[in-house]
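User: quick one, fold this
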Amino acid sequence: MIPRIHKQGSNTLGLLHYLYSKGTHEEHVDPHLVASFDHMAPDPGRDPAATKKDLQHLLDQPLHLIETDQRPTQHVWHCSVRAAPDDPILSDEQWGDIARRMVAATGIDPGDGAGCRWAAVRHADDHIHIIATLVREDGRRPDHHRSGKRAQAEARLIEADYGLHRVTPGDGTAAKRPTSAERHKAERQGRDRTVREELRETVRRAVAGAATEQEFFDRLKDAALLVRTRVLPSGDLKGYTVALPGDHNKDHEPVFYAGSTLAPDLSLPRIQARFDTTAVATAPGNGDHQDHPPQRPAPSAARRTTTDAAWAALLVLDRSDEGAAAAQIAATGEVLDALAKTSALYTRQELHEAALAFERASRSHTREEFRHSQQLRRAARDLVRSGPALGRGEDGATTAMVIDMAFFLVTAAAHWHGKKQHAQQAAAAHQAAEHLRAAYRTAAGMPMGALYQRGRRLAQPVRHKQAAHLRRAVPELAELVLAEPGWYALAATLADVESAGHNPAALLTEAAERRELGTAESVSDVLVWRLRRSADMPADTTDMWPHENGAEPLMRSAQRPAQRRTGPRSRRP
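Assistant:
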């Protein structure tokens, strides 16, 4: 249940006209009173003899207890209370009880016999509006300080009493919600989201891995945003605002939003805090204009770099102080934004949803110390600079590899927030993990399928040998892994590891010890990617072929030596 205290107004009758109207899109159905301060207020919705002006006069009568020049100009208090979509439909009596609890908790009508006059109007199944006049019956002003927080606390109690959907309590670090006016404007313009939400996502993607102010602003302009900057007399930047082309106010001027109004961590000082000053020499605007700019990484190489950086970030979350851990979590959000921007279409939607969900998890009251997260931020920058990745080959396989690692990193962030009692952040991280799990299933289908077929074709003695390595390295996991369908892919990978000159049992032990595996859907999948990363082997094996005995080194088809054919074309075994 979400209560919302709206901005105070000065026109009681104007608000009543809205509450009893059909709404801007005919969304108000059967507006009527469900409760009032005296249980006898006139109801213009159900009583043909009652008018909105009658109700307005009744609510505003306490104003006359005060001299005209001393009356508050903003005397109209307005609170909406909305149930969750999956909550049962409440009766008028239940909504009336909720309204009375809300005005008591917020100090509007605390039950001392001299509270403010108020009325609760229901014009939809899932919510009510409470209107009150901010002058008590004794002529004093009500004590409604911090009424928003008091309403939220009462809503949590109401949820428990009525068995409603339990909303995780906030901590003041969430991004500002779009206003009703912004939502209605988006509907008129045929947009799926409000301008505020579109700008927030675009700015976050511009931040992902950016090394300097210039690179950040260049990305905003490349995204076709209108950008204004404010400069101090010293020449230093003070702030910035952005606007979406085509979004105008009534004077046909662009509507600009400051970064800090999009999200608390998108203000210019908070963005500047992310930059690594030791790397400025190689950043755009500094190093990229040199005669020999840094080479753009391949998408697959950028994904391997990101996987390595995520390994390091996991250790920080486990062992470091709060500031370093918070920085790693914020940088994880940058990686997810970069992955969503550059991955192939068939994984992009789930990655996009993961990045949107994790946005809430990337902020808390713990201030980030970004010097600890530059490896992860540089990985995000490599992802952006590498450009779009293909959905097949090494690009597609390393995408599965990095999503697998990102899942564990996001899950670790959820555990960290949980320990700190950051309820909303932990819930957001868990939600992001589910989207990553879905993205992984899609991305891993082809590369894991190729490994599975290779494992099935391995000779029986070779598979027995790899099973022995597994039992020796991780005896507590061996039988679980051997029963998984992914065992064949792991067996093929262990054969590759051995052919490359590594000790399979040693690498297996290291892979299993680096992080818990209890949250993995397939332990064998996780071990496959960790082994292929540790041994620096290709992630994609779709164009590899196994030798007959399954133990010889595998060779790329493009690297096979040409052979002169002197006879009829034969089928290769």
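User: anything notable?
Assistant: The two ends are 65 Å apart (CA to CA).
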